[in-house]
Design a protein that fits this description.
Blueprint: H1 2-6, E1 8-10, E2 19-22, E3 28-35, H2 40-56, E4 62-71, H3 73-91, E5 96-101, H4 107-120, E6 125-127, H5 129-138
Parallel strand pairs: 3-4, 4-5, 5-6
Antiparallel strand pairs: 1-2, 2-3
Helix pairs in contact: 2-3, 3-4
Length: about 140
Amino acid sequence: MQSLIQGLEQQPTYCPCPKVYLNAQTGVCVLSGRSFMITPYSFYKEILDWQEAFIKMPKRRIYWCFNLSFVSIGSKKMLLCLLKQLKEYKDLGGEVAIEWIVSQYDEDLMNEIREIAFFSRIPIRLLHPETSARNLQRMHII
């Protein structure tokens, strides 16, 4: 629970794992990089546990920014679990915002994101790199 208060920042051990930033004080959560681990469950389990503890606290805003340029099928399943957890929180009155930074030219990834949003039943706002950099700087993420 101590990590929940201070936030969780997890650096990738090698390139298949995305960089993780979770801040319980601000509610800002970021996943960036590529996600194609052989066993994504073990990687995402800690994130899911952190999020579950966060949303049990009094209703607070949570903001997720995904900047993933590639998501494997296994990682996609874990992201669906994460987003379904957020959907439940939103349905109970929690404030949730989700954005995904994606190149406007990456049609395949945009279709994947739309599919993830459809199956999780929660909206994901698509940001293009030129827009997202300003937003992230404003929020002091980068």
